[in-house]
Design brief:
The protein has helices at about 5-15, 25-45, 65-80, 145-150, 220-225, 245-255, 280-290, 320-335, 335-350; strands at about 55-60, 65, 85-90, 110-115, 130-135, 160-165, 170-175, 180-185, 190-195, 205, 240, 260, 295, 315-320. The chain is an alpha+beta fold. Strands 3-4-5-6-7-8-9 form a 7-stranded mixed sheet, sandwiched between helices. Strands 11-10-12-14-13 form a 5-stranded mixed sheet, sandwiched between helices. A two-stranded antiparallel sheet has the order 1-2. The protein binds 2,5-anhydro-1,6-di-O-phosphono-D-glucitol and manganese (II) ion (MN) (2 copies).
Length: about 350
Amino acid sequence: MAQIMTIERHILEQQKQFPNATGSFTRLLYDIALSAKIIARETTRAGLVGILGASDDHNVYGEQQQKLDIFADQTIFKMNDHSGQLCAMASEEHEDIMHIPPYYDNGKYVLLYDPLDGSSNIDVNVSVGTIFAVHRKISRGQQGTLEDLLQPGRRLAASGYVTYGSSTMMVYSTGQGVHGFTLDPSVGEFLLSHENIRVPDKTTYYSANQGNEKYWTPGMRRFTKWLQGIEGEGRKPLGHRYIGSLVADFHRNMLRGGIFFYPGDLQEPEKPFGKMRLMFEAQAIAFLAEQAGGYGSDGLGNLLDIQPHSLHQRVPLIVGNRDLVEKAEQYIRDYDQEWVAAYRPFRDKTLTTP
Ligand code: AHG
Ligand code: MN
Ligand code: MN
């Protein structure tokens, strides 16, 4: 019988390789897993407890918040605010940094999270997810600050996601490969089901919202034709799969090989950076992709090298098999000088902003 490995045991095993690990990291990942179990329970019965449907609140982006967004957001904060592992949190659903209540201890990590990814799919019973990223505290003093949150993805201590789909899976990396756990509801444990996930060399799918094609840059339109075998050396076309939940689209492509892209465009020239959130979605996903042998880019280069300048900063995301992502970068270099000229100052601003 294969060894049964729970996520808690797996995290402990991983931490043994860090001589000075104090186990606090283990506790933090355990608490995130517990949050996921609670959110999973609500997503599977959302239709029953009237949690479906939009609330009358709106988030920082002006998007109507779905009740499950709010439930997930509150669950993650309340599950992690008292453990003493964190000195601050940040959520896609909150404008500003979230401090640890004064009656709890501050820890040496910060947690950034997208509590419910794919919100538009909640009401139609399509997979949704949670995305999280953990940075180490680098600022002085007890409380976490924006400096602790706004770190490049290269410095991530861990990142991962939960996908609430046909089964509930939690996938994470602490920089030692990517490992997937499937929730066994009968025992309430995440059990190791996908050890050391590697993006397959064989690419199968591309994922993009082609409803936006009219606004895409010439290079990205040509790249898409190349993926379809229409342009270039007439390669075998990739299948097109797009669910509209980043976690679900990325998870499928990481297991089957392929590419996901939500590119920047010039539909609104003052916003050339696309829709994905750097701190709550793209950094975590690009870190996992690289840990699994893939690559995440903003179109100009490695997304993990971007120095963030604001919590809700958006970024183009092109992620998956390295050869496909680098091909997209080539098309952008060859055909999208106008877009690059509009986007680069925005990206480079991040390098000079104090
Ligand atoms: P969220 O629900 O957290 O706002 O994320 C939705 C994101 C991402 O999950 C998905 O890939 C993308 O939005 C879909 O955007 P379009 O509907 O514009 O394709
Ligand atoms: Mn999201
Ligand atoms: Mn969300």
